[in-house]
TrEMBL record, chain C:
Highest taxon above the source species: Eukaryota
Signal sequence interval, chain numbering: none
Family in the record: Belongs to the CNOT1 family.
Compartments, record wording: Nucleus
Organism name: Clunio marinus
The protein's name: CLUMA_CG000016, isoform A
Residue stretches making up the CCR4-Not complex component Not1 C-terminal domain: 147-506
Amino acid sequence: PLGPTPLQKDHQVQFQMMEAAYYHLPSPSDSERLRPYLQRQAIATPPHFPQTQLPHSDTIDFFQRLATETLFFVFYYMEGTKAQYLAAKALKKQSWRFHTKYMMWFQRHEEPKIINEEFEQGTYIYFDYEKWGQRKKEGFTFEYKYLE
Amino acid sequence: MGQDLTALGLNLNSMENLYQSFGGPFSDGPARPQDIDYPVPSEYLIN
Amino acid sequence: IDEPPGFLERSEYLLKDWITIFHTHATRDPIKSFSNFVNKMNIYGILKGDEALTRFFRHATQMCIDVTYRNDPTINNTKIFKYIDPYVRLIALLVKHSGETSNSTTKLNLLNKILGIVIGILLKDQEVHKQNFQQLAYHRIFIMLFLELSSSDPVLENIMTNVLTAFCHAYHILRPSIAPGFCYSWLELISHRVFLQRILATAPQAKGWSMYSQLLVDLFKYLAPFLRNAELAKSVTLLYKGTLRVLLVLLHDFPEFLCDYHFGFCDVIPPNCIQMRNLILSAYPRNMRLPDPFTPNLKVDMLSDINTQPRIHSNYAAAIQPPNFKKDLDLYLKQRSPVTFLSEIRGHLQISNEPGSRYNVPLMNALVLYVGTQAINQIRAKNQNPTMTNIIHNAHMDILQNLAVDLDNEGRYLFLNAIANQLRYPNIHTHYFSCALLYLFDEANTEAIQEQITRVLLERLIVNRPHPWGLLITFIELIKNPSYKFWDHDFVHCAPEIEKLFESVARSCM
């Protein structure tokens, strides 16, 4: 007994407004902070490309299997997101350390020459994100108080 | 017959809560890690 | 009206100045740049009183909206956001730092004032632009302001419940039936993952859940007239599927919320919206294990949870109006007389202020649930639990049987729906109404009633999953228990596909 009924006047007006709004829908990025580098941009890729997220791709295990350069890419280009957070965790598991004073990642390259409560001086590798590669830093002092 | 609710892009068998990565009512898949704002330490905001 | 000369220009200058500050690296020290800017606002007379501040926010909001109409949002939303996001940050900082740290009143007054200004401009804009209304700027203002105010900060945490209340109030004022041009953004806003987290997971449950249920009722009320047809327009299908997605997240993460508020939702979901209603009725508490309804010889009345009282956060007793009807009803339930009362019930149910339907559905739902709960209370008072024998031959069943017999097709359909809406997870309501429905089938004085009971159950079973547990066990009992002589009825064999359907359900039951 509850078949279709003609829309009342105010419902018709609502319907017209909804129809109009249907042609400029909100997109997901309207609800996300502006990304300095990689703004979300839906681009139709060939259907044989993976169209959905890889399973568990939002877990630390997944990020740990990524190459170091990939982790640095995620860290520097997706800042302020969960991806950056997971990349940072994965880098730490690969024994990189983020120095909050220099705001750079370092990895001990060989046993340091001097170690005490404040710092350890030795040879470190750091990631140079301008040249996008790892470089050695001789005689660098790693102050513990800045270690994150 | 209604919709096939398993085909709306939500992993209904997930052991985790869905809302933390809910991509929104009009998106066919969950939000990706790079879409989700996260309270990272301010030093990470190197921009 | 009587705006001081140059006020608009000053406001515009200040807003652009703040946007520049926001985008330069001066934000490396946000507090310093903010306090310098507040001094500048002061010098420009913005902070000298309530009225000046209101004018400033109205101009600043309008400028953000104007930017949207000057730029094509589908191409240039980044430029629009670079304009709006700083403005939102300014609002959030002013809310956070207004008044003493502990004085939440000034902060919330300012927040509600600003939300009110944005709402006012949106409604005016929708009225002026009609089909050319652009929702983007308002969407951005609301979501970014909410994200700014829900960031983990001790001052803001302290006022979070009030902030949520302010936003729920704003979203209720902007509900789709009031702002249909904003309906898609509105659904995005109320189902945003941070909003869901805040209102359903971290806010004090009683407050957050109740406010959120109101927003869902607003959504169902808006959708209802457009869902009456089997074929939905594209714009409706999108909103409907979006609603299903949100409900699926709620079913998966907050099933107890759907359990507690199902009654209010069923009042406003159109009866032919079967799958969406099933989705809500399928919710059950996460700590409950549902026995497989197809278990052979399942003894429902032996289940440990079957006699638990479900929580229902709706004042259904108060929904029984007018007061004299409620008084007569209570009198009849108490002394099973006067018998004339039974013949008056239909008249009350047919007073519907809902154009397009001849019955008052919320009243029907409330009456059925009230009679059922009163019956349960009476049974429990004798230290018993509902069974097929102790639910009959009493005032409560008189009323249900009278409704089954006295109502016309439409009325009886709505009545049987009211009962079927209680067939949920194992609890005493499910148990009582399952027995009641089977009894009505058994005692029906015409086959039409039995057919309609079967239809109401069947239409809920043939739609795609999920199906409420109580619905399944009731239907299985109906087709399995020989005392109902289900298979002897002509309507079971009325068409080959119907017969095949029943047999397939029977096979899966056996």
